[in-house]
Amino acid sequence: MEFIESFTFWEEFWVVFILVIVAWYIHDKYVQRDHQILVNYPIIGRLRYLFEEIREPFRQYFGDEKFYESKDKLDWVYKAARDKPNYASFSPSQPLPKPKFMIRHANIVLNDNEVENNFEVLFGERRKKPFISKSIIARSAMSDGSISPEGTRAFVQGSFIGGFPINSGEGGVTSNFFVTHEKYDESYMKIVDSNNFNKAVKRAVKFFFNGAVAADVYRKLVFRKDLEAETYILDMEKERFYRPNWDAPLEAFPKEVPSDMPDIVFQISSGLYGARDKDGKFDPDRYQKVMRFCQMTEIKLAQGAKQTGGKLSGQKVTPAVAYYRNVEAYKDVFSPNRFPFANSIEELFDFIGTLQEMSEKPVGIKIVISDLQNIEPYAKEIKRRIDEGINGYPDYITLDAGSGGSATAPLEMMERVGLNVRDSVYLVNKVLTEYGIRDKVRIVASGKILTPDDVIIVMSLGADFLQIARGFMMSAGCIRARYCSGTTGRQCPVGLATQDKKKRRKYFVFRHANYVANYHKNLLKNVKGLLAIMGLKNIKMLDQNKLLFLDKDSRVHDDIDEVFRRKLDLAKNKGE
């Protein structure tokens, strides 16, 4: 009897299965008219769309790395973030392609402990409040909005733990940048407390589950349906929420940057987010308040392939992001192409002078260059102002590479606009030196810098300081699925670059904060190792004479000036 019942069940199953397949076949071949391939290959043709769907998130697991120099470099980042031994056996799995720079080693090398631990960089020595960075490396600009709130908190905590600066990105200094700030003054913070019942529920949830779930439940109990609930940080010890009260008078804000906050570089873009009023105009009062928590300012004129201004798709513009940026929720936020105070270089430098006067701190610009014409006008104006004693010129210039950019950027501009970071650094260093102003302006480099050898090479070519985005993204859990923009219908699978609540709330903030700090620590540790075999006691001893160049035919060149002269002339002759 049991056998007959079982047999009947399977008969019914196969009948239903065959009917579904037949109906599916008929639909694909004779009904739908969206996909041509399904008409000729019903059902099986859908495998094409399946393979397309999994291609990007699984790309890194198959074959060699094509976008970066090698997969070995990516593996180094992930191991460094987890503080694992970073040695290779037998040989690299994917040798670096030629042409490539080589590092000169010394006949008499140093031991690692003979290399100085001093990696400080001074910005704005002429300002009333100059900034001394404790590291040569900062996390590059990533906006709170393009990055999830949880991701931003992980970066902020990692920056604070690791003792290196963090760039706010054009989204401004949001509440999430205050996650380590526990010694706050209620005069400049808006406090939201709760009743004993809600606090008891939070404690119970934390006992049975974990702190992240408890915080989420507690936030819902306190704020109910308040759309701005996510703009508040939870003080777990005091069991209350807080966020900066930007409506408080300037006098209420701290005179110096609080010691329990990381070193923040406040980035202002053409959208003026974080320093604008509700009409979108520059707000001097808000800017000065923000700068009470930041060490210096960076004016973003261009970034990677974003020559059209930053872009944030509407689905990432949550009510919290809209609050931070003074815009409308769930609508695309596309910054203008041109910075509003940069209709000329003279106007831009006057605005820089205004910010320097208001903040009393260093102010720099972020640009992408294609040739001499992109940097010489800046150098000429800086030289003129110095000679004539006119205030207002950048304390530093950040050079981003034209190799793409994080999150959303026009595909047609990626790899087509702007030099790579090494060419840019060499060219800008050369021009500033020729104009006699190199000692007045720091050079900051950004763009596909991942590993210690990248750091050594770029700094040997003339950079004083580095900002890293991709490496820190990977250290924070990024698997390079390329769903960052939110415009593909898919979301970042790890919850780092998405505003999807289901995904981002499962992101391990504290674990990844430590990974971020580890990545920075191991970068500096292994930079010291390279300096040791180069026979150099200090990072400031690097220059282009410490490099060799291996061309595509394996010929070695030791005159770096000649290498770049031929390289840049060749690019000019080809019209690239």
UniProtKB/TrEMBL annotation:
GO biological process, one term: glutamate biosynthetic process
UniProt keywords, alphabetically: Membrane, Transmembrane, Transmembrane helix
The keyword Ligase appears for this protein: no
SUPFAM superfamilies cross-referenced by the UniProt entry: FMN-linked oxidoreductases
Residues annotated as domain Glutamate synthase: 124-536
Keyword Transmembrane helix: yes
GO molecular function annotation: glutamate synthase activity
Segments traversing the membrane: 7-26
Family affiliation: Belongs to the glutamate synthase family.
Protein name: FMN-binding glutamate synthase family protein
